[in-house]
Amino acid sequence: MPVSPYIARLRRHVGHDMLMLYGVSGVVTDDAGRVLLARRGDNGRWSVPAGTVDPGEQPADALVREVREETGVDVAIVRLAGVATHPVLYTNGDACEYLNVWFRCRAVGGEPTADGDESLAVAWFTVDALPELDEWARLRIGTALDEGAPPWYAAPGQRHPALCHPDNL
């Protein structure tokens, strides 16, 4: 589903102005350690599966639903990997600030299949052969795959993921 009815109703009131939304994303790995990525329908870029949390829905439930809808893959959540806010300006002019919670997940079923709307392609990638990714996807993958690390968050006063990444602290 491209835009939830809830967000569509909000947009009728605020137009393109900033909306604060809750989002989830998943760093999904298979038994070989490959990472599942989807080519986004809105901007054509590769990214981890992601989406918004519907009213009354828990983030973990939203993540399982979004990964299934966008990629055809069923997942089990392994752990909470991080939380951060990030801005998004869509090509239609809609502005959002997402509070994103991301999880480390493992694939437990299904077949990688693009939905043709939110995802144009879905594929497994080895960590050393990832396609070009934005800084937010790289941050989520890096922190989720850091075995034994606590959930990641930006330290007080930090905003940009490149500045927040543990390698730069």
Task: Write a structural description.
The protein is α/β, with parallel strands linked by helices. The chain has a single domain, classed as Alpha-Beta Complex (Nucleoside Triphosphate Pyrophosphohydrolase). Helix content is about 20%, strand content about 40%. The chain has 4 helices and 8 strands, in the order αββββαβββαβα. The strands form 2 sheets. Strands 4-1-6-5-8 form a 5-stranded mixed beta sheet. A 3-stranded antiparallel beta sheet has the order 3-2-7, with no helix packed on it. Strand 2 and strand 3 form a beta hairpin. The N and C termini lie far apart (about 40 Å). The C terminus is likely disordered.
Features of this protein?
Nucleoside Triphosphate Pyrophosphohydrolase, globular, 169 residues, 8 strands, 38% strand, 3-stranded antiparallel beta sheet, 5-stranded mixed beta sheet, 22% helix, alpha/beta
Tell me the helix content: 10-25%
- End-to-end span in angstroms? 39 Å
Spatial shape: globular
- Helix/strand order: HEEEEHEEEHEH
CATH superfamily: Nucleoside Triphosphate Pyrophosphohydrolase
CATH class: Alpha Beta
Strand order of the largest sheet: 4-1-6-5-8
CATH topology: Nucleoside Triphosphate Pyrophosphohydrolase
Largest sheet, strands/sense/barrel: 5 strands, mixed
The Cα radius of gyration reads: 15 Å
**Integer count of domains:** 1
Counted by DSSP, the helix tally is: 4
